[in-house]
Amino acid sequence: MDSIPLVTRATIDLHYTLLSQIGNLGSTPDGKLKGFCRAPWSDEETKAICLVQASARFSGLITLYDAVGNLRIRTPGDHTTVFAVGSHLDTVPNGGNYDGAAGVIAGLEAIKTLWDARVPLQRGLELIVWRGEESATRGVAYVGSKAATGTLDPAILTRTWRGSTLAHAMESQNVDPTFVQQQKQCFPDTGRQYLGYLELHIEQGRVLEQSDIPIGIVTSIFGNKRYWVELEGQADHSGATAMNDRKDTHAAYAAIHMALEKLYQREGSPTNVVWTNTMFNRGRADFDVLVDENTGNTSVPGYAYFRFETRSNNNTLGDSYATKALRVIEGTARSRDVIVRIHPDSSTPALEQLDISLTKALKESARYLGYGHTNLPSGGGHDGVVVSSVGIPVGMLFIPCRNGMSHSPLELANHEHIAMGANVLAQALYNLAK
To answer: Is the confidence at residue 1, as pLDDT, over 90?
Structure first.
């Protein structure tokens, strides 16, 4: 296996010196970090993308935007066959600066390393900076990749965050939402055959850090099913209403949560299924009105709502478990004399097995570089799921993050690990494209 130049920690440091200034919310008066906010199709997300674009242009790489605003960075040349790398720069509100961004920086440096060294390659290389991977602002993940592949539900354009619809946010960044409305496709590109797609990401878990292993080879990506659940009881006097006469929606929610815990203890699979009640009485403005009307300082709560999700890397198992969980929610609510209404919100299938040949290429590159590595599934979702859905092989690797924390101001990855991940990507791309 031929050697290529290595990406250094100093190079990653330089990128983060600049990136850390974009969307940084600063600190509270007592010194607690507030994290970052680069919402999909926001000025902050665009500034971060432009930063990456400028670095690519400086190295002589070709940059362009597709019809929905995803940045595409390409090695020069008339290539009809391509290997791609990708990730995202948007964050959840008050999130960290490594979820997605580490993959973009590593992917950029992997391609720049090969291009700057003028390593002869038979295939083109491309970095894709996807818009809007995170679902936190408008409830749907992979918006940029789904929009590019023509698979995004146009109804998503009307979803709001901080008073702005997705359509308006797109327009503010010079993207025409009618492209999404008509479900047109701009990826994969006509005339370019994508032979594979690789992505680096922080693990968002503790396996690598606790095992002191710098590289994780991802074997599968969890899918998810998300629901809004309404509970309707009866608002009543908190003193005069006897305990056994109450239709208390907060008590019903607590009972539902405990019943779901018991279901998981009986039938859950620690390595294949997880579930979470992600939000309680927040996140839906139309439901918030009912909360205000049916709760008070001296009232038995008469209304509540929450968001429920299940995740699995096995679609059959995930579907089965979600069905059982919904039955538990319905049965427990009825036992509390509370009406329950369940609204499916979004669903993304699992990618049950990543491409064998790309996985092998990543393993061989890590081994050649002398980096410790291990196999593990991805509990979080990634744009690779969408890329795979249009027939492109997908491979993925993880690097550790401190205490496994992500979607948090405390999210942190060692820049040495990002450089190591970039080197694995570069070596794998070289071996695949030469």
So the answer is: no
- What confidence score (pLDDT) does residue 72 get? 98
Which residues neighbour 5 within 8 Å (Cβ) at sequence distance 6 or greater?
113, 116, 117
In whole angstroms, what is the distance from residue 135 CA to residue 385 CA?
A: 14
pLDDT value of residue 285 = 84
Q: What is the pLDDT of residues 358-404, one digit of tens each?
A: 999 999 999 999 999 999 999 999 999 999 999 999 999 999 999 99
Dmax of the chain from CA atoms? 82
Structure tokens at 375: 């196999």
Q: Retrieve residue 94's tokens.
A: 């008050």
Instruction: Assign 265 a pLDDT band (cuts: 50, 70, 90).
Output: very high
Arithmetic mean of pLDDT, 83-98: 98
* Position 112, amino acid: K
pTM: 0.93
Q: List domains and CATH numbers for the chain.
A: 9-222+351-433 (3.40.630.10), 223-348 (3.30.70.360)
Phi, psi of 252 (to 5 degrees): -65, -40
